[in-house]
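Mods, move this if it's the wrong board.
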Amino acid sequence: MERIVYAVILAGLAGVAYAHQAPSGFQYSAFCCNGDGESGDCQPIPSQDVKIDGANYEIALKPGDHRLATHGHLFSVPQSKAMMSMDGFYHLCLFPNEDVVRFFYAPQMNF
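Not the wrong board. Structure tokens:
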């Protein structure tokens, strides 16, 4: 009986860990994002929205660039806080609302 309960718990956790991914197939960290590909708080954003300014990423998000953005935003994210994007695109996680950056994924910079 314990094995059955344990297997059900593991199956449920595995489903949560893989529930939210970008259209490219890139998996967002399970601890980062809520929802799914259609309603989640993480999604790719246009590279034109992102500029590097010293040690920060400056993100000028416009309405429509992220499903939660209803007005323009200017976010500054330290490069040291950015997570690695594995698909070469920028991704932004907004939670608990559109005014708060929970996580920002950036592709590796090539010099």
